């Protein structure tokens, strides 16, 4: 296993992002890169370039470039022209771009397939009609995203030349109607998203210019009317989303011509009945979603007549009070029926007559008092039944006798107090049983008899269990026992669960764990022991396994002994926060090569040392990305303690007792993006304390009592974008303290500043000041 784990780790690392400079010395920009099959993708998200857009290496095989959330307001001309790159995807979304300069994407006309400019300001009040010859030049484009740009109209010639365009996103704008004229000629357009606009009517001619559409989303608009024949030109349409509009009715002919429509979403409207006359023409309809309407009776379902193609019907969250006999009689092909969150107190014996193909039935939150076993006898193929949030108090072999073929049964959040012997004795196919949130106090092995050879998921959380039987389920994958009254576990509790991968024991009263408790479950991946009363962990409790996540937060652990988590080769996340840990033994985290997240916050640690970690797998260091040491008693940091963790991106020392922060830590951590040192006792920021950190973006130094800052404290940390110096004792700032920063949000509130240097924010020093907070500074 050891050798195999090394190979697995190596493969995983090969697919990860790395700083671009590590990939090639020609890539000097402060971004992350990925190389797959000799094709390079550059990720410059959140990176603000100082000066002009950098010149990328000539004819390097760069196929993707993204720079989202970088505060860009304008893109200069010929961004990629001189580099002559085979770019297929460019993403400048989530910036502040107001227009596209001439020739901005010159050189990409023949290769660019995917352009994303969403969440910008291309349709601001000065330019509500979006027109750009630069987009018209991209004749190879297949996907274009202009969503969330405040666009009210598209110029009629904007898209005419984009004959290869297949996907167009123009959601989240301010269109009052479908921009039919601008869509003319897009013969290959398959996907059109128009959600979150201000469209109030679908006219007969609205979509006549896009006959090839397969997917259309007009949800979250203000549509009150669909004219007869409103979609009749869309003979290829497969999916139509009209949810979250203002439809109270649909006239006959509204869906005329949609001969291939398979999915129709009418949820979250104001329909008072199933619009049978409009739906009858949909001969290929498979999925009909009507949840969150005002439907009170199901006469419209009866009026649908035989609709053999319909497989899924969702009527969740309506006002349905009863299920009359024969309601679904003609829906013989229906496979999924959702009736949750209605007012169906009683289910008539013949309510499901005719549902000979039904496999999934949801009756959650319907005030049902008992399992409608007679009605369910009509549904011979049922494999999944959900009765959560009802008032079922008793289940037994007799009340379940007509559904013994189930694969999944959920009766969570009811008032079941016991499981009689033999309740599931005939359930030889049941794979998932959910009894979360009931009143079970005891559980005898005989009550689950019959499930041994099939059960894979068992949820007994939020009950009143204080003891557990020895579970014997050879195929069980997931076991949830959270929020019970369990105070002790026998060492052999899980011996007969060889396939267990997820175990949740959180929110119980456990004070200790038998050393060998988890040894039999060698395939365990996720373990949650949070919010118990565990006082100690011992070396060897977490044996070499496939475990990926361990959660021990909110216990009473005082010490992490030597070798506690030794050789957990696949451990990704370890949460030890909110304990009373005072010491960590040497090698406590020995040989955990894939650990990404370590939370030690809210403990009583006096220090953090390198000796906690050792690696036997050859590597440059750990894979740790997130380290939280906040809310401890740390007074001093040793820079060498962080040398093994050069891939850290997020680091917090907030709420400790540091009076000095070693500059070497930041210099060692070249990938660090977030550093939090709030509420310590640092009085002075020395020269280069936070300098030369190429990726540092967020630095929190509030509430330290800082009195002075050296002029070069942040030198060459050009990506610093959020700097919090609030609640300190600053009386003055050096004139060049922010020199070289590209763009910055600065908080100087609650200090003793009476003035600022006249040119401190001059553009030659700081390219763009996004905001500055000077509240409650002394005048």
Automatic annotation (TrEMBL):
Top-level taxon of the source organism: Eukaryota
Pfam families, A to Z: LRR_8
UniProt xrefs under SUPFAM superfamilies: L domain-like
GO cellular component: extracellular matrix; extracellular space
Key words, A-Z: Glycoprotein, Leucine-rich repeat, Repeat, Signal
Keyword Glycoprotein on entry: yes
Signal peptide: 1-16
UniProt protein name: Toll-5
Organism: Penaeus japonicus (Kuruma prawn)
Taxonomy of the source species: Eukaryota, Metazoa, Ecdysozoa, Arthropoda, Crustacea
């Amino acid at each position: 296993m050891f050798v195999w784990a090394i190979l697995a780790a190596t493969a995983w690392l090969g697919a990860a992002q790395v700083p671009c400079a590590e990939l090639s010395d020609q890539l000097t920009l402060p971004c992350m890169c990925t190389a797959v099959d000799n094709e390079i993708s550059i990720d410059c998200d959140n990176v603000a370039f100082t000066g002009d857009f950098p010149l990328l290496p000539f004819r390097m095989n760069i196929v993707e470039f993204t720079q989202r959330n970088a505060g860009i307001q304008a893109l200069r001309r010929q961004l990629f022209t001189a580099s002559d790159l085979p770019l297929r995807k460019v993403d400048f979304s989530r910036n502040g771009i107001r227009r596209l300069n001439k020739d901005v994407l010159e050189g990409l006309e023949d290769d660019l397939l995917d352009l994303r400019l969403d969440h910008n300001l291309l349709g601001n009040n000065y330019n509500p009609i979006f027109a750009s010859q630069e987009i018209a030049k991209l004749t190879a484009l297949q996907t274009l995203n202009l969503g969330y740009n405040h666009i009210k109209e598209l110029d009629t010639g904007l898209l005419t030349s984009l004959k290869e365009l297949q996907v167009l996103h123009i959601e989240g704008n301010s269109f009052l109607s479908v921009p039919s004229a601008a869509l003319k000629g897009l013969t290959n357009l398959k996907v059109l998203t128009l959600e979150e606009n201000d469209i109030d009517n679908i006219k007969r001619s609205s979509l006549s210019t896009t006959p090839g559409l397969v997917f259309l989303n007009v949800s979250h608009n203000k549509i009150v009317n669909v004219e007869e024949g409103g979609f009749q030109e869309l003979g290829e349409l497969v999916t139509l989303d009209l949810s979250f509009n203002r439809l109270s009715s649909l006239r006959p002919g509204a869906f005329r011509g949609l001969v291939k429509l398979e999915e129709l979403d009418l949820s979250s409207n104001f329909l008072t009945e199933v619009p049978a006359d409009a739906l009858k023409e949909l001969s290929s309809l498979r999925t009909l979603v009507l949840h969150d309407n005002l439907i009170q009776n199901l006469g419209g379902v009866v009026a649908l007549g035989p609709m053999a193609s319909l497989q899924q019907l969702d009527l969740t969250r309506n006002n349905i009070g009863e299920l009359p006999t024969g309601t679904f009689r003609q829906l013989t092909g229906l496979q999924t029926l959702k009736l949750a969150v209605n007012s169906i107190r009683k289910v008539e014996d013949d309510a499901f007559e005719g549902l000979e193909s039904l496999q999934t039935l949801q009756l959650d939150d319907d005030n049902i008092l008992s399992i409608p076993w007679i009605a369910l006898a009509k549904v011979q193929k049922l494999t999944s039944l959900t009765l959560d949030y009802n008032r079922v108090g008793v289940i037994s072999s007799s009340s379940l006798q007509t559904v013994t073929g189930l694969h999944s049964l959920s009766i969570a959040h009811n008032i079941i107090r016991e499981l009689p012997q033999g309740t599931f004795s005939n359930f030889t196919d049941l794979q998932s049983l959910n009894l979360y949130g009931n009143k079970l106090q005891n559980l005898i092995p005989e009550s689950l008899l019959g499930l041994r050879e099939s059960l894979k998921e068992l949820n007994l959380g939020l009950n009143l269990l204080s003891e557990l039987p020895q579970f014997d389920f050879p195929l069980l994958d997931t076991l949830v026992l959270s929020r019970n009254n369990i105070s002790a576990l026998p060492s052999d509790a899980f011996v007969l669960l060889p396939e267990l991968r997820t175990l949740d024991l959180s929110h119980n009263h456990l004070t200790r764990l038998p050393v060998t408790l988890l040894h039999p479950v060698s395939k365990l991946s996720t373990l949650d022991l949070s919010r118990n009363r565990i006082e100690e962990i011992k070396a060897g409790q977490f044996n070499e396994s496939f475990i990926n996540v361990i959660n021990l937060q909110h216990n009473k652990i005082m010490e992490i002994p030597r070798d506690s988590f030794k050789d957990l080769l696949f451990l990704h996340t370890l949460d030890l926060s909110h304990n009373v840990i005072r010491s960590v033994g040497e090698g406590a985290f020995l040989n955990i090569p894939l650990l990404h997240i370590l939370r030690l916050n809210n403990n009583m640690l006096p220090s953090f040392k390198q000796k906690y970690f050792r690696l036997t797998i050859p590597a440059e260091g750990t894979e740790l990305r997130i380290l939280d040491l906040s809310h401890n008693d740390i007074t001093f940091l040793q820079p060498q303690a962080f040398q093994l963790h050069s891939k850290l991106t997020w680091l917090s020392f907030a709420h400790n007792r540091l009076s000095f922060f070693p500059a070497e830590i930041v210099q060692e951590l070249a990938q660090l993006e977030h550093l939090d040192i709030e509420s310590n006792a640092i009085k002075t920021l020395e020269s280069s304390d936070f300098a030369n950190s190429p990726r540092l973006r967020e630095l929190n130094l509030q509430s330290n009592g800082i009195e002075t800052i050296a002029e070069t404290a942040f030198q060459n940390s050009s990506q610093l974008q959020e700097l919090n110096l609030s609640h300190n004792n600053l009386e003055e700032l050096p004139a060049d303290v922010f020199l070289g920063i590209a763009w910055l949000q600065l908080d100087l509130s609650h200090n003793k500043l009476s003035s600022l240097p006249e040119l401190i924010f001059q553009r030659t020093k700081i390219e763009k000041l996004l905001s500055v907070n000077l509240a409650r500074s002394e005048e």
